[in-house]
Each structure stands twice: as structure tokens, then as C-alpha cells.
């Protein structure tokens, strides 16, 4: 009994120790969406039906659907795939831009993709309803693909029938989208395309005008300081006062940080590869 209790205590300490290094919003989103999934399952899908996004929702000004459809999932596999795909890029973005700023970004990407899906699917006469985080997953994939392609323009190169084929980093999200469509044929290709489009808009700073000034975010955080302080030691909260300076500097590539290695990579990428395949960088 004592040994079992000791094991449980050590396990809990280990989990909490790892958790405190994780980003607050990223962890919170995983927990919150799981709780919503649980409640929705108990209620027979009433919540997901009420907030699912459908073609033409924008014409009926159903703003709740445009903002909250990403929070619901049809089953545990759907939820698991989405949170696994989103957690790492969302955490990286949160560390670079701040917790509140990332929350606003998440909402902007959701609404931007939702508007595109609602408009285009209505014009195409579709009747598909969509829910889930997958659109935002593709948004962050395309965001980082755009940022990274400036430092690593070629993601992968291989030989095919005696010819060298290069896969551009910039367009890599479309490859993931195609694979997803094959493996998960019930997924919404249009919804994923809307997510990809929104990510590129974010990377190109076209959504920047929609963000509130930093001083407003700092004011909100100062008023919520007592509540935010409760997160200390549990997860990492990135304050706006610190993040406003880090996100205004030039982008730091995730996979290539040595400028000299970039020059070497650029010079050697044109050399034909004679093996089966050559990964130029980890993605």
C-alpha cells in the first residue's frame, strides 16, 4: 500500500514537473476541449450540433458558430488527432507571441477560416457541417511553412525516373492536406483549405490590423493578475509586457539557426541526389 502510494505521488510530481514547462493556453485548450467533448457525449451531441458550422452561416449572422465550431469533436479519435497535431505549433507560437495574443490569434484564424468555408460551401451548394480544431491545425502548418520557407525553401528532394524532384516548404501544407484527405475521407477538404488560407494570411500580416493594441492586452492582464498568478508553478504564462518585444523582432527559424549552414544548404540543394531520398531538414 505504501509502495503504491509512493509510486502515485512520484508519478504526480513527474507529471506536474513536466506540465509547468508547457504553455498555458496550449494546455488549457487541450483540457477545455476534452471537457466539452465529454459533456457533449453525455448530452448526445447537442452542443456540437448547436455550434457546428454550416454553409451560409455567415448570411444568418450566426457568430457563435463562426467562433466556437473548433471546440467540438465528433469522437475521441477526432479529438486526439486534432490536439496532437495542434499542441506543438500552438505552443511554439505562444512562446514567441504571448498567451493572450495567441488566444486572439486562435479566434481570428477560426473566424477567418469559418467565413471562407461558410461563403464558398454555400456557393457550391454543399450541406456539410464542420466541427473541430483541424482547420486551425492547417492554419499553423501554413503559417510556419511560409515563415520557414524563407530559410529553408526546399523541404525534401528525391529522385524520380532519373529526375530530381523538389518539394517546396511553402506548399508542404497542401501535401499534408492531400494525405489527410486520403486517410480520412470523411474530413472536410474545403474546411482544411480555408484553414491553410487563413494561416498564409496570418504569416503575411494581413490579419495584423484586427489585433487590439498591446496596451489594451497589458491592461487586461494587469486586472487579471491575481488569477494569472494562480498558474505559477502549474503552467507557463507568457505575459504581454514581455512578449510584445520578442514578437516584434525578426522571425527565428525553427530548424536552421546558423546563417552559414543556410548558405551551404542553398549551394548543395541544387546538386542531384543519387540515393533513394534525401531529407533536407526535419519538419
TrEMBL record:
Per the UniProt entry, the signal peptide is none
Task: Tell me which stretches of the chain form a coiled coil.
Answer: none
Q: Which gene encodes it?
A: Piso0_003885
Name-wise, this protein is: Rhomboid-type serine protease 2
The terms describing its cellular component in GO are: Golgi apparatus; membrane
Cell compartments where the protein resides: Golgi apparatus, cis-Golgi network membrane
Pfam families cross-referenced by the UniProt entry? Rhomboid
What is the enzyme's class at the highest EC level? hydrolase
Tell me what reaction this enzyme catalyses.
Cleaves type-1 transmembrane domains using a catalytic dyad composed of serine and histidine that are contributed by different transmembrane domains
The Peptidase S54 rhomboid domain is annotated at: 62-204
In alphabetical order, the GO MF annotations are: serine-type endopeptidase activity
| Organism of this sequence | Pichia sorbitophila (strain ATCC MYA-4447 / BCRC 22081 / CBS 7064 / NBRC 10061 / NRRL Y-12695)
The family database entries (InterPro entries) matched by this protein are listed as: Peptidase_S54_rhomboid_dom, Rhomboid-like_sf
Q: What is its EC number?
A: 3.4.21.105
Q: How does it sit in the membrane?
A: Multi-pass membrane protein
Q: What are the TM regions of this chain, as residue ranges?
A: 24-43, 76-93, 100-124, 130-146, 167-184
Q: Which domain of life is it from?
A: Eukaryota
* GO biological process per UniProt: proteolysis
